[in-house]
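DNA-binding transcriptional regulator, LysR family: C-alpha coordinates wanted.
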Amino acid sequence: MTLLQLQYFQTLAHTLHYTKTAEELHISQPSLSYAISGLESELGVKLFEKRNKKTELTLFGQQFLPYVENALSSLEDGKVVLEKLNKNASQIVHMGYFQSISSSLIPAIMERFYENPENREIRFDFVEEPGFDIFTKIRKGELDLGFCLHTADWAESVLIHRQPLYLAVPADHPLAGRMSVSLTDFADESIIMLDQSSILRQQLDRNYAEINKVPNIVFEVRECNAALQYVNLKFGVSVLPTVHLAENDKVVFIPISDEDREYVRSIYLTRAKGKMLSVAAQKVWDHIATNFALPKTRE
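Answer:
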Protein backbone atom coordinates (compact mmCIF):
# COMPACT_ATOMS: atom_id res chain seq x y z
CA MET A 1 0.00 0.00 0.00
CA THR A 2 1.13 3.54 -0.67
CA LEU A 3 0.95 6.75 1.31
CA LEU A 4 -1.40 8.22 -1.31
CA GLN A 5 -3.76 5.27 -0.98
CA LEU A 6 -3.94 5.81 2.78
CA GLN A 7 -4.52 9.53 2.36
CA TYR A 8 -7.26 8.88 -0.22
CA PHE A 9 -8.88 6.32 2.09
CA GLN A 10 -8.85 8.72 5.05
CA THR A 11 -10.42 11.54 3.07
CA LEU A 12 -13.10 9.30 1.52
CA ALA A 13 -13.86 7.80 4.93
CA HIS A 14 -14.75 11.30 6.17
CA THR A 15 -16.65 12.59 3.13
CA LEU A 16 -18.25 9.26 2.09
CA HIS A 17 -18.62 10.81 -1.37
CA TYR A 18 -16.36 9.90 -4.30
CA THR A 19 -16.95 13.08 -6.30
CA LYS A 20 -16.35 15.42 -3.34
CA THR A 21 -13.28 13.46 -2.31
CA ALA A 22 -11.79 13.61 -5.82
CA GLU A 23 -12.38 17.37 -5.94
CA GLU A 24 -10.80 17.86 -2.50
CA LEU A 25 -7.77 15.80 -3.49
CA HIS A 26 -7.55 17.44 -6.94
CA ILE A 27 -7.64 14.09 -8.74
CA SER A 28 -10.07 12.46 -11.11
CA GLN A 29 -12.80 10.21 -9.74
CA PRO A 30 -11.52 7.18 -11.74
CA SER A 31 -8.06 7.67 -10.16
CA LEU A 32 -9.64 7.71 -6.70
CA SER A 33 -11.69 4.61 -7.42
CA TYR A 34 -8.61 2.81 -8.79
CA ALA A 35 -6.54 3.67 -5.68
CA ILE A 36 -9.25 2.48 -3.27
CA SER A 37 -9.81 -0.69 -5.27
CA GLY A 38 -6.07 -1.42 -5.19
CA LEU A 39 -5.95 -0.89 -1.42
CA GLU A 40 -8.92 -3.24 -0.91
CA SER A 41 -7.28 -5.87 -3.10
CA GLU A 42 -4.08 -5.69 -1.08
CA LEU A 43 -5.95 -5.94 2.22
CA GLY A 44 -8.28 -8.63 0.95
CA VAL A 45 -11.40 -6.92 2.30
CA LYS A 46 -13.94 -4.32 1.18
CA LEU A 47 -13.51 -0.96 2.92
CA PHE A 48 -16.54 0.77 1.41
CA GLU A 49 -19.95 -0.35 0.23
CA LYS A 50 -22.97 1.22 -1.46
CA ARG A 51 -26.28 1.34 0.42
CA ASN A 52 -29.24 3.17 -1.05
CA LYS A 53 -26.88 4.93 -3.46
CA LYS A 54 -24.80 6.16 -0.51
CA THR A 55 -21.15 5.26 0.19
CA GLU A 56 -20.56 3.82 3.65
CA LEU A 57 -17.65 2.34 5.52
CA THR A 58 -17.81 -1.40 5.98
CA LEU A 59 -17.00 -2.94 9.35
CA PHE A 60 -13.48 -3.55 7.99
CA GLY A 61 -13.22 0.08 6.96
CA GLN A 62 -14.34 1.28 10.37
CA GLN A 63 -11.72 -0.91 12.05
CA PHE A 64 -8.97 0.18 9.64
CA LEU A 65 -9.62 3.94 9.84
CA PRO A 66 -8.11 4.62 13.34
CA TYR A 67 -4.88 2.86 12.35
CA VAL A 68 -4.62 4.87 9.15
CA GLU A 69 -5.26 8.14 11.00
CA ASN A 70 -2.67 7.27 13.66
CA ALA A 71 -0.12 6.36 10.99
CA LEU A 72 -0.68 9.54 8.99
CA SER A 73 -0.61 11.63 12.16
CA SER A 74 2.72 10.07 13.18
CA LEU A 75 4.15 10.77 9.73
CA GLU A 76 3.03 14.39 9.99
CA ASP A 77 4.63 14.67 13.42
CA GLY A 78 7.84 13.29 11.95
CA LYS A 79 7.70 15.83 9.14
CA VAL A 80 7.32 18.68 11.66
CA VAL A 81 10.32 17.42 13.65
CA LEU A 82 12.47 17.25 10.53
CA GLU A 83 11.41 20.73 9.46
CA LYS A 84 12.35 22.04 12.89
CA LEU A 85 15.71 20.25 12.78
CA ASN A 86 16.37 21.67 9.34
CA LYS A 87 15.49 25.17 10.51
CA ASN A 88 17.74 24.81 13.56
CA ALA A 89 20.58 23.46 11.42
CA SER A 90 20.43 26.60 9.30
CA GLN A 91 20.74 28.60 12.53
CA ILE A 92 24.06 26.97 13.51
CA VAL A 93 27.20 28.93 12.65
CA HIS A 94 30.48 26.99 12.39
CA MET A 95 33.19 29.32 13.67
CA GLY A 96 36.82 28.79 14.63
CA TYR A 97 39.32 30.61 16.80
CA PHE A 98 42.67 29.99 18.48
CA GLN A 99 43.42 29.54 22.15
CA SER A 100 44.86 32.91 23.14
CA ILE A 101 41.61 34.77 22.32
CA SER A 102 39.27 32.12 23.78
CA SER A 103 38.85 33.79 27.17
CA SER A 104 38.98 37.44 26.12
CA LEU A 105 37.89 38.42 22.62
CA ILE A 106 35.42 35.58 21.93
CA PRO A 107 33.30 36.03 25.11
CA ALA A 108 33.15 39.80 24.51
CA ILE A 109 31.90 39.28 20.96
CA MET A 110 29.34 36.67 22.03
CA GLU A 111 28.00 38.89 24.81
CA ARG A 112 27.53 41.78 22.42
CA PHE A 113 25.97 39.57 19.75
CA TYR A 114 23.32 38.10 22.05
CA GLU A 115 22.30 41.52 23.36
CA ASN A 116 20.13 41.68 20.24
CA PRO A 117 17.01 39.53 20.89
CA GLU A 118 16.81 38.70 17.16
CA ASN A 119 20.10 36.80 17.45
CA ARG A 120 19.14 34.52 20.33
CA GLU A 121 17.98 31.67 18.09
CA ILE A 122 21.43 31.45 16.48
CA ARG A 123 23.81 28.87 17.93
CA PHE A 124 27.53 28.28 17.40
CA ASP A 125 29.57 25.19 16.71
CA PHE A 126 32.99 26.37 17.89
CA VAL A 127 36.33 24.91 16.87
CA GLU A 128 39.45 25.86 18.84
CA GLU A 129 42.67 25.05 17.01
CA PRO A 130 45.92 26.78 16.01
CA GLY A 131 45.32 29.83 13.84
CA PHE A 132 46.74 28.28 10.65
CA ASP A 133 44.48 25.24 11.04
CA ILE A 134 41.44 27.52 11.38
CA PHE A 135 42.56 29.35 8.23
CA THR A 136 42.83 26.04 6.35
CA LYS A 137 39.41 24.82 7.51
CA ILE A 138 37.78 28.02 6.25
CA ARG A 139 39.36 27.53 2.83
CA LYS A 140 38.14 23.91 2.71
CA GLY A 141 34.61 25.00 3.63
CA GLU A 142 34.66 23.17 6.97
CA LEU A 143 34.03 26.45 8.82
CA ASP A 144 31.76 29.34 7.89
CA LEU A 145 34.14 31.89 9.33
CA GLY A 146 36.84 32.23 11.95
CA PHE A 147 39.50 34.34 13.60
CA CYS A 148 42.88 34.03 11.92
CA LEU A 149 46.31 35.58 11.80
CA HIS A 150 46.91 34.88 8.09
CA THR A 151 45.55 36.62 5.01
CA ALA A 152 45.39 35.40 1.40
CA ASP A 153 43.85 36.26 -1.97
CA TRP A 154 41.11 33.63 -1.54
CA ALA A 155 40.07 35.04 1.85
CA GLU A 156 37.98 38.04 2.80
CA SER A 157 39.46 39.43 6.01
CA VAL A 158 38.45 42.17 8.41
CA LEU A 159 40.95 43.43 11.00
CA ILE A 160 39.34 42.89 14.41
CA HIS A 161 42.04 43.10 17.05
CA ARG A 162 45.67 44.07 17.58
CA GLN A 163 47.06 41.64 20.12
CA PRO A 164 50.11 42.84 22.11
CA LEU A 165 53.06 40.46 22.45
CA TYR A 166 55.23 40.06 25.52
CA LEU A 167 58.39 38.29 26.56
CA ALA A 168 57.34 35.43 28.84
CA VAL A 169 60.06 34.46 31.31
CA PRO A 170 60.23 32.31 34.46
CA ALA A 171 59.52 34.35 37.58
CA ASP A 172 63.12 33.94 38.81
CA HIS A 173 64.71 34.86 35.46
CA PRO A 174 67.16 37.81 35.54
CA LEU A 175 64.90 39.80 33.22
CA ALA A 176 61.75 39.19 35.30
CA GLY A 177 62.10 42.45 37.22
CA ARG A 178 62.38 44.64 34.13
CA MET A 179 59.58 47.06 33.19
CA SER A 180 60.27 46.37 29.50
CA VAL A 181 62.83 44.67 27.28
CA SER A 182 64.08 44.96 23.71
CA LEU A 183 65.01 42.18 21.32
CA THR A 184 68.70 42.66 22.00
CA ASP A 185 68.05 41.98 25.70
CA PHE A 186 66.85 38.43 25.02
CA ALA A 187 68.30 37.63 21.57
CA ASP A 188 70.84 35.20 23.06
CA GLU A 189 68.39 33.49 25.41
CA SER A 190 67.14 29.95 24.88
CA ILE A 191 63.74 30.45 23.32
CA ILE A 192 60.59 28.41 22.72
CA MET A 193 59.15 29.25 19.31
CA LEU A 194 55.90 28.49 17.54
CA ASP A 195 56.30 26.40 14.39
CA GLN A 196 57.05 27.96 11.02
CA SER A 197 53.40 28.08 9.88
CA SER A 198 52.79 30.70 12.58
CA ILE A 199 52.67 34.39 11.69
CA LEU A 200 54.35 35.11 15.05
CA ARG A 201 57.23 32.79 14.16
CA GLN A 202 57.66 34.43 10.77
CA GLN A 203 57.69 37.85 12.42
CA LEU A 204 60.34 36.81 14.97
CA ASP A 205 62.52 35.18 12.30
CA ARG A 206 62.55 38.51 10.44
CA ASN A 207 63.34 40.44 13.61
CA TYR A 208 66.30 38.18 14.50
CA ALA A 209 67.62 38.44 10.95
CA GLU A 210 67.50 42.25 11.12
CA ILE A 211 69.96 42.23 14.03
CA ASN A 212 72.06 39.43 12.50
CA LYS A 213 71.19 36.93 15.18
CA VAL A 214 70.12 33.28 14.98
CA PRO A 215 67.59 32.33 17.66
CA ASN A 216 68.64 29.60 20.09
CA ILE A 217 65.48 27.52 19.69
CA VAL A 218 65.07 24.77 22.30
CA PHE A 219 61.50 23.76 21.36
CA GLU A 220 59.10 24.38 18.49
CA VAL A 221 55.42 24.07 19.38
CA ARG A 222 52.08 24.63 17.64
CA GLU A 223 50.21 26.55 20.33
CA CYS A 224 50.97 29.46 22.62
CA ASN A 225 49.79 27.53 25.66
CA ALA A 226 52.34 24.79 25.00
CA ALA A 227 55.14 27.39 24.72
CA LEU A 228 54.03 28.90 28.02
CA GLN A 229 54.20 25.51 29.72
CA TYR A 230 57.84 25.13 28.71
CA VAL A 231 58.59 28.64 29.99
CA ASN A 232 56.94 27.63 33.24
CA LEU A 233 59.28 24.61 33.38
CA LYS A 234 62.27 26.97 32.86
CA PHE A 235 63.39 25.61 29.50
CA GLY A 236 63.68 29.13 28.13
CA VAL A 237 61.77 32.32 27.27
CA SER A 238 59.13 32.92 24.63
CA VAL A 239 57.43 35.79 22.81
CA LEU A 240 53.69 35.38 23.33
CA PRO A 241 50.39 37.14 23.87
CA THR A 242 49.13 36.91 27.43
CA VAL A 243 47.97 33.33 27.90
CA HIS A 244 46.18 31.91 30.91
CA LEU A 245 48.17 29.41 32.96
CA ALA A 246 46.93 27.82 36.18
CA GLU A 247 50.30 28.51 37.77
CA ASN A 248 50.92 31.85 36.07
CA ASP A 249 52.66 33.22 39.15
CA LYS A 250 55.68 31.25 37.93
CA VAL A 251 55.72 33.18 34.63
CA VAL A 252 56.18 36.91 34.12
CA PHE A 253 55.02 38.76 30.98
CA ILE A 254 57.28 41.71 30.13
CA PRO A 255 56.34 44.35 27.53
CA ILE A 256 58.69 44.44 24.54
CA SER A 257 59.76 47.93 23.55
CA ASP A 258 61.76 48.38 20.36
CA GLU A 259 62.04 51.65 18.47
CA ASP A 260 62.10 49.94 15.08
CA ARG A 261 59.76 47.01 15.69
CA GLU A 262 56.16 46.72 16.87
CA TYR A 263 55.41 43.59 18.88
CA VAL A 264 51.75 43.03 18.13
CA ARG A 265 49.90 40.60 15.89
CA SER A 266 46.83 41.35 13.83
CA ILE A 267 43.74 39.17 14.24
CA TYR A 268 41.29 38.98 11.36
CA LEU A 269 37.72 37.80 11.01
CA THR A 270 37.96 35.63 7.90
CA ARG A 271 35.64 33.97 5.38
CA ALA A 272 36.16 32.46 1.95
CA LYS A 273 35.54 34.93 -0.88
CA GLY A 274 32.59 34.02 -3.06
CA LYS A 275 31.13 31.54 -0.59
CA MET A 276 27.44 32.12 0.13
CA LEU A 277 26.93 32.20 3.90
CA SER A 278 23.75 31.08 5.60
CA VAL A 279 21.50 33.85 6.86
CA ALA A 280 22.71 33.15 10.41
CA ALA A 281 26.41 33.18 9.47
CA GLN A 282 25.94 36.39 7.50
CA LYS A 283 24.33 37.99 10.55
CA VAL A 284 27.35 37.01 12.64
CA TRP A 285 29.78 38.33 10.03
CA ASP A 286 27.92 41.63 9.72
CA HIS A 287 27.69 42.07 13.49
CA ILE A 288 31.39 41.50 14.12
CA ALA A 289 32.53 43.53 11.11
CA THR A 290 30.29 46.43 12.10
CA ASN A 291 31.01 46.50 15.82
CA PHE A 292 34.60 45.28 16.14
CA ALA A 293 36.46 46.15 12.94
CA LEU A 294 39.63 48.25 13.25
CA PRO A 295 41.32 50.39 10.59
CA LYS A 296 43.98 48.38 8.78
CA THR A 297 47.55 49.31 9.61
CA ARG A 298 50.81 48.27 8.09
CA GLU A 299 52.43 45.26 9.76
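The chain has a mean pLDDT of 90. The radius of gyration is 33 Å.

Cheers.
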